[in-house]
Amino acid sequence: MSLILICLFGCQGFYWCLWVLLAFTISVENKVNHGNQSRIHKEINMNSFKFLVFSFVFLSSLVTKATVFSGVNRIEFNDPQYNKAFVGNGFLIEFENKTYAVTVKHTLLEAKTPKLTHIDFSHLISAWYIHPLREPQRFVKLGRLINRDPKEPIDMKILQKDWLVFEVEENNSDLSILKLRTSQIQPGETLTAYGCSYAKQRECYLDDYQFNFIENDQHNLRLTMGDRKMGALRGLSGSPVLDKDNQVVGIVSNILKKKSAEGFDFAPANLNYLLSVLKANSKAIKQGPK
């Protein structure tokens, strides 16, 4: 039964299944040889034990290095009554040889406090982390908010520019640093969102959700929803949307009413606003302090 449960964990579980089977085989062989413990048998048993230890360490490293595209947001406020252990997802990107942490602005609608009213919160939030769910020790600590705007209110209009872009203060995570796609997305192309929803937070490590590209709007991509229920996707906001080469094409943000039929399209924020923020920041870095 325990072997079956281990196998249920997918690719990583496959490695552990092999290790358990190997350990079981060696254990049976040792029981058969019990009572006939010659020097040769003892040496074989010791070598078997050493091999098990080595294989355990090796397989542990494989699991640790499994690809992780995103983590959940954990926000700590100066006033701890407002702390949020899981409010959407976030991830790392690379632009012009610099690493940034990103998530969606509308996480602030859920994390909003009486004093948190605009996109300017360094005086209210003591720390913001991104980490795999249930693994807070493998964290990215976010630094300065690059697109801070004390004049931008936290309301539904932020969905039109639904990116928060941070410097990275500290990275103790295994999160992949993702690159942005520069070529156009083709109609029908399969895209995948990687993250955790509130509905599956008890068992989620990194779920994947596939969609097909329809078209690019001003602020959003339009993707097929299929038969997914909107409630099942709640909490997935801030997850990266990647192409088959794991390049970023958008961030989970919104849904939009279909243009020509009943129902809704899945509508991640596209890269337009993000690129404007990143290019402005790169220009400011090159110009240096004024």
From TrEMBL:
Domain of life assignment: Bacteria
| Pfam families for this protein | Trypsin_2
Q: Does the keyword Membrane apply?
A: yes
- Extract the InterPro entries matched here: Peptidase_S1_PA (IPR009003), Peptidase_S1_PA_chymotrypsin (IPR043504)
TM stretches of this protein: 51-72
SUPFAM superfamilies per the UniProt record, alphabetical: Trypsin-like serine proteases
Q: Which UniProt keywords apply?
A: Membrane, Transmembrane, Transmembrane helix
Keyword Transmembrane helix included in the entry's annotation: yes
| Name of this chain's protein | Trypsin-like peptidase domain-containing protein
Which species is listed as the source?
A: Aliikangiella marina
